[in-house]
Amino acid sequence: MTEVQITDNLYRFKQKIDQIERELNESIDSPESMPELIDSSNLLRKNEFLVNTDQKKTELLTVYSAYTKSMELMLTSLFEIQNELKTILQEQSSLISSTKPKSKPKSKPKSKPKSKPKSKPKSKPKSKPKSKPKSKK
Asked: With helix as H, strand as E and coil as C, how does the chain read?
């Protein structure tokens, strides 16, 4: 369940990052000085622009920080899964290694059943004479 939450968080953070970057790109154009306005008015406009862009950049850094933390959580989970899989593979490998010697004795019993079919033909001739008397009747 935490993996789903991490994935959702990453998606939301990525959307927020894209939105803030678009807003910053839209406001990149610094207001130009207008000769008809006095210097203090131009300075106020420039200051307002800088405050807005600074707020957006601060917000962007905050979202990037949260996004990075979520990515670190995801990577930590992935490394834990990788280690668990490695352990499982090692256990299965050791099981396979331990079963290989056992498979050799299993081949020996296979030769024993081969001798059993030899006994079966002995029973078949016994059945054939039984069929012969039936044909005589």
From this structure: CHHHHHHHHHHHHHHHHHHHHHHHHHCCCCCCCCCCCCHHHHHHHHHHHHHHHHHHHHHHHHHHHHHHHHHHHHHHHHHHHHHHHHHHHHHHHHHHHHHHHHHHHHHHHHHHHHHHHHHHHHHHHHHHHHHHHHHHC
pLDDT digits (tens, 9 = 90+) for 66-115: 999 999 999 999 999 999 999 999 999 988 888 765 545 555 555 555 55
The distance in angstroms from the start CA to the end CA of the chain is 80
Phi, psi of 31 (to 5 degrees): -65, 135
Quickly tell me which residue has 């930590």 as its tokens. 76
43-55 per-position pLDDT tens digit:
888 888 899 899 9
Give me the amino acid identity at 119: S
